[in-house]
Amino acid sequence: MTYQVYDTTLRDGAQREGISFSVVDKLAVARLLDEFGVGFIEGGWPGAVPKDTEFFRRARTELNLRHALLVAFGATRKAGVAVADDPQVRALLDAETPAIALVAKADLRHVERALRTTPAENLAMIRDTVAHLVAEGRRVFVDGEHFFDGYRTDPAYGAAVVETALDAGAEVMVLCDTNGGMLPSQVTAVITDLTARTGVGPERLGIHCQNDTACAVANTIAAVEAGVRHFQGTANGYGERPGNADLFAVVANLQLKLGIPVLPEGCLEQMVRVSHAIAEIANIAPDTHQAYAGAAAFAHKAGLHASAIKVDPLLYNHVDPAVVGNDMRILVTEMAGRASIELKSRELGLDLAGRPETLSRVTNRVKELEAGGWSFEAADASFELLVRSELPERAPAKPFTLESYRVIVEHREDGAVVSEATVKIRVRGERVIATAEGNGPVNALDEALRVGLTRHYPELRGFGLADYKVRILEGSQGTGAVTRVLVETAGAGRDWTTVGVHHNVVEASWHALVDALTYGLDRAHV
Ligand SMILES: CC(=O)SCCNC(=O)CCNC(=O)[C@H](O)C(C)(C)COP(=O)(O)OP(=O)(O)OC[C@H]1O[C@@H](n2cnc3c(N)ncnc32)[C@H](O)[C@@H]1OP(=O)(O)O
Ligand SMILES: CC(=O)C(=O)O
């Protein structure tokens, strides 16, 4: 048996607080998971959740999966009910999937206190349900709920659950760390003991780990190292409470660290795209710092890192980011050294190699400005303008010079608050005075500048303010508090961010706005 990559984003992932997939969302997520190359997609619980019943109905005609098989999830029959009479078991068959996953109690305390039945009846529920579904032609996986907790208090009963499920025809018995409390050494110890006690080979076992100790990925890897061939997880680790094992990290670790090819050729590099697309559908901001898939997974801030990366990127990256579809990024901040500045500039198309004095000047300016509250980490456009101001042959053209600006905020009798700005500027030798209103002082300033500049630069109409962020920074070393403004501008299919800092919020915004217009106009003429 090869490895079974089993995704439960649409079932366990959907149990995460804040996620509510529509049927259309579920179909879209299933297509993405299939593109990522997983072998099984657990689509939900038909008969329990109406959207899941509908998902399986539509999946029959609307999904054309290349790699994955759909799995319907449900529970063993009810205690004291004949399996053929259990409507929940009937709904599993009606989902018409090739495989079914059954959640079964595997911990005596749950049998007695949650199911309120006898140990023997629980085993009969497992046996009857598995045999019934297998007789109906389904592949059956049994999820042993609370398996590890149960086994550690009563290994004989845990072993009986495994033997009952497999003897009844289950393809794989999945050991679940339902409360997510295990550590990797404990997972290994239970699997080693179980296989020795029962003679069941680890290749008949599966693993499903919740992330309550932040060990779900490590626990899953430990189980695979102990011989388990079926492993479950979810996209981005979504799941009940802190979540499930992040399937992306599990798969990447197995392929890249242990050399076990678990995905079809060419699929691993789809990871970042699939991860972010599923996050969008789940309406959860992608986790920037997620291992492998996060935007910062290969982002380097420290100057020492950059100086080694300049020699060889692998000196400070554990793998080549491209193998999972990610990119390396160099961040320019107060922690930058000359190597960081050189690499970042190269990323922006500016070659500073062989210009040690320029590099030192830019590095020192960045450090001084950052000490005063500037932040270039998220403001590539302002950083590029700063570097270019040190390069006579690439210095950006100034679209105008400022004589003065004035902004007023008027609170009217009727409660309306209106801002008005006037700018006096020189554009291509002409003195221009322009006034505009706005819903706030920054909006009014932006509008007034545009009124004054558009006759000379009609391309300004092609871009506009997309986002505006303000942060008040604590004063230090005897200075007052300062305001940092980040302005995001969008146009012509791209966006760029600029920064401004001052103790006055309008002046900080002015700096960021002027950089935004200068950069945008410069780009329009490249
Ligand atoms: C560990 C996991 O995450 S497993 C996945 C859990 N997912 C979900 O619970 C989401 C979907 N669940 C649901 O929609 C509902 O809980 C349903 C439809 C399944 C059941 O709803 P209800 O019939 O109202 O029952 P309720 O949720 O209150 O209790 C669960 C019942 O299932 C029984 N049960 C629990 N586990 C099992 C099992 N493995 N096998 C058989 N019966 C079980 C409980 O004993 C309880 O029975 P009771 O109603 O006779 O007391
Ligand atoms: C089945 C499952 O989701 C669990 O036991 O955690």
From TrEMBL:
Transmembrane segments: none
Annotated pathway: Amino-acid biosynthesis; L-isoleucine biosynthesis; 2-oxobutanoate from pyruvate: step 1/3
Annotated ranges, domain Pyruvate carboxyltransferase: 3-272
Gene Ontology MF terms in the entry: (R)-citramalate synthase activity; 2-isopropylmalate synthase activity
Record's keyword annotation contains Transport: no
EC number(s) recorded for this UniProt protein: 2.3.3.21
Top enzyme class: transferase
Alphabetical GO biological process terms: isoleucine biosynthetic process; L-leucine biosynthetic process
Keyword Amino-acid biosynthesis appears in the UniProt entry: yes
Alphabetized CDD domains for the sequence: DRE_TIM_LeuA3
Alphabetized UniProt keyword annotations: Amino-acid biosynthesis, Branched-chain amino acid biosynthesis, Isoleucine biosynthesis, Transferase
Catalytically driven reaction(s): pyruvate + acetyl-CoA + H2O = (3R)-citramalate + CoA + H(+)
Family of this protein: Belongs to the alpha-IPM synthase/homocitrate synthase family.
Entry-linked PANTHER family: (R)-CITRAMALATE SYNTHASE, ALPHA-IPM SYNTHASE/HOMOCITRATE SYNTHASE
Protein's recorded name: Citramalate synthase
Protein species of origin: Micromonospora pallida
